[in-house]
Amino acid sequence: MYVCICNALKDRELADAANDARNVAEVFRRCGRRPQCGKCLPDVAQIIEDRRALDNPAPLAAE
User: Fold this and answer.
1) Would you say 18 and 47 are in contact if contact means Cβ atoms under 8 Å apart?
2) 12-62 pLDDT, tens digit each
3) Domain with 11 in it: what CATH number?
4) CB of 27 within 8 A of CB of 21?
5) Do the domain assignments include residue 61?
6) pLDDT at 61
7) Which band of pLDDT confidence, cut at 50, 70 and 90, is reported for residue 9?
8) Is residue 60, in this structure, part of any structural domain at all?
9) HEC string of the chain?
């Protein structure tokens, strides 16, 4: 699914670029693009957070 229409970037491309990314600008640099209109920035930030959660899952609570 397209996340960034201006740069024709799909969710998978952005998720791959988000591995260990510090911020949204770094994700765009890794894709060789620059943000244009900015409407996708919150979505890209969420993709970064989702990748971090996958890489560092929360510990399970003791029963």
Assistant:
1) yes
2) 999 999 999 999 999 999 999 999 999 999 999 999 999 998 877 767 666
3) 1.10.10.1100
4) yes
5) no
6) 66
7) very high
8) no
9) CEEECCCCEEHHHHHHHCCCCCCHHHHHHHCCCCCCCCCCHHHHHHHHHHHHHHHCCCCCCCC
CB contact at 8 A, 36 and 6: yes
Q: Please identify which residue in the block is written with the tokens 């971090």.
A: 52
Global confidence as pTM: 0.84
Q: How many residues does the chain have?
A: 63
Max CA separation in the chain (angstroms): 48
Domain hosting residue 39, numbered range? 2-55
- Asked whether residue 10 is domain-assigned, the answer is yes
pLDDT for the residue numbered 57: 73
- In the numeric block, which tokens belong to residue 27? 């994700």
Number of folded domains in the chain?
1
